[in-house]
Amino acid sequence: MTHHGYNEPHRQTAMSDIITAEEARPGLLRQVRNGIGGLIVLLLTGLVLMIVVLWKSP
Asked: Would 26 disulfide with which of 20, 30, 38, 44, CB 3.0-4.6 Å?
């Protein structure tokens, strides 16, 4: 998450990060697993939609 510093005496042009204690920092393996899982869900959804469309077509 980023924010602009409005209360600072000098305006910064770059955004600065907001670091919170509860911010999750997943590891590389978890990110890969989540990415592959999301890809599989999207592929299965597309496959189901294609089957429904082709099944209903004359």
From this structure: 30
Q: What is the CA radius of gyration of the chain?
A: 22
Q: What is the dihedral of CA 4, 25, 32, 35, to 10 degrees?
A: -50
Which residues, at least 6 apart from 16, have a Cβ–Cβ distance to it below 8 Å?
Answer: 2, 3, 5
4 sits in which H/E element: none
pLDDT tens column, 5-54: 555 555 556 666 666 767 778 889 999 999 999 999 999 999 999 999 99
Q: What is the pTM of this model?
A: 0.55
Measured between alpha carbons, how far is residue 54 from residues 3, 35, 51 in Å? 48, 29, 5
